[in-house]
Amino acid sequence: MAMTKTDLYDFLAGCKLGVLGTIGKDNRPQSSLVGIAITNELEIIFDTLNSTRKYRNLIARPACSFAIGWTGEQTVQYEGEATELMGTELERCQEIYFEAWPECRSHMSWPGITYFVVRPRWIRYSDFDQRPPFIREFLEEDLRS
Fold this sequence. Notes:
The protein is α+β, with helices and mostly antiparallel strands.
C-alpha cells in the first residue's frame, strides 16, 4: 500500500479532534484536546483562549505535537511549529476552520479568542489494523511537494 499526501489529507480531514502537546515554562509537557481543521498543505488550525496554558506555551515555545485518530489503530503523530493567526492569513484559516466547525463561529464573540495554525515538520501515519502494519513517515521536504 502506498500513501500519498492526498491520502494523508483525507485521513486527517476525517478527524475532528487532536491531542495537542506543548511544552510549559518549566519544560514539562502539557496536553489538551482541541477541535481541528486541516488545510490542503496539511496545516492544522484550532482555536483557543489567550488565557489558556496552551496559548502561553505556544507563544513562548511554538514547537508542538499532535496525536490524531483513535478509531481502530489508524493514527497520526504530527510535529510542527505553531503561529498565532492574524490579518488575511487569519481570515483564510478561519474559513477552513468554520467549514469543519460551523458551530464555532459563535466563539468569535468570546473575549480572548484566538486561532493558531501549525505547519508540519514531520508526520507519521500508522495503521496497525493491517497485517503486517503499515507505517509511512512524511519528512518536512515531503510535505512541501
